[in-house]
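RETRY 2/3 - previous attempt timed out on the joint model. Re-submitting the same 523-residue input unchanged.
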Amino acid sequence: MPSTTRPRPWWESGTIYQIYPRSFYDTTGDGVGDLTGVIEKLDHVSSLGVDAIWLSPIFPSPMADFGYDVADYTDIDPLFGDLATFDRLLAEVHARGLKLILDFVPNHSSDHHPWFRESRSSRDDPKRDWYIWHDPAPDGGPPNNWISDFGGSAWEWDAATGQYYLHAFLKSQPDLNWRNPDLRAAMFDAMRFWLDRGVDGFRIDVLWHIVKAEGFPDNPPNPDWTPDKTERDKVIQLYSADQPEAHAIAAEMRALADSYGSRVLIGEIFLPNAAHARWYGTPQRPEVHLPFNFQLVENPWDADVLRRTIADYAASLPSWGWPNWVFGSHDAARIAARIGEAQARVAALLLLTLRGTPTLYQGDEVGIGRVPIPPERIRDPQHFRQPSLNIGRDRSRTPMPWDKSAFAGFSTAEPWLPLNPDWPERNVAAQSVDPSSMLSLYRRLLTIRRQTPALAIGDMKLLDAPSGMLAYIRMQAGELRTILLNLTDSPIAFDWQGDVLLSTLESPANPGQLRPNEGLILA
Ligand code: GLC
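RETRY 2/3 succeeded.
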């Protein structure tokens, strides 16, 4: 994993913080967060020590999928504010030396988007081909066996015009047709609109989905499917995703971003390593800077599995590809809910010392764990499509607990989703003054990372380690740091040497062992 001597773009050494605006801070008293709320809490983001904010969608939307159903790509939903508030946010972000990355949702719009209303108005409408329409199969059923990622057929019948339209997600999220040059131009104009305003890049939603195979062949059945898996997994998405034409579009998006200077494109891509790595493109025709890497979310919290995961991912990267790591998001279960608070501290150390750009998810910095969502408060449409699977995403979208005042200082009204039950103690204000808190650990880690080129940009080498432990070194220009992580709640005998720069535990470390749940950075 050699490092090069070229100048480093900010997003390689930087850390990204994902804000889910509905749940960050509400200034209007409606129980839902807004852009003024993001502005008012920017000091929290700065004091954390991250470099960039990625904002989940803020565009006009009927909110069937909480903003991932966009009804206008170039405006702000009144729930969140307006363009003037957005410009103020961008200026405030930049004034603090931070970057702002928007969520761009190119695979589908909302069925409320005027483009879709026109498209479905008649078969002859000029925008008919901006979406993916198809005649029924000979038996009158859907054109093929494709399954929506949220379950059920990916095709919806439109009686008025006698054709089906494709939706990889909800039926209120019709897929756009990127093979149509006018649609393509309109989407590039939308990207330009925000780049011209000064945004520093985009996180591109389900990028690998955006083009479908010509002829719409059936996807092959998945021989490993069992009923405890999602309906989507019944078939292998061979023809409905990861098509070569989508790579060409990613390259076009990259050329646009590069024409604005130092902007970043992050692609949401779930694929095995070899296919995933292709989304970097080539040096001659680069695609996204960072294809999001979700392997820490997807794999069990086990030292052997993670060692293999880290090594295989590193080996799969092209020499021009910079790695990245994600631990949580508005879609994934909370890390502290998965592995418990003591190990979530070890996980924070791992995320912020692996080689590659880390993305943190709001609320993980205070260690929000399992949040019970009573049935009457469930909001996530994914849950309602397959209720028996318990894959609802509300559990990771609960509001930020800011302090111990009513509704955790998030809002003056009942929040749209329940708070973490321990909010009176687990909140930003309480953890800010507690040196042993998760928040203090994150701040210390981010400070050390900023001060230590070996951790931010250095090379990495995995070390042999006893069972249950991960060990590696990071090095840059003669600076060397050793990271030791005990992924269990038992002590592990290990004869380590060096000065402890940081420990996940409070009391002094013991040479000769790693204590239960201990993570160390050594110099
Ligand atoms: C992405 C988003 C998710 C959304 C889906 C459809 O996976 O992260 O929240 O539901 O795309 O847009």
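The mean pLDDT is 97. Closing ticket.
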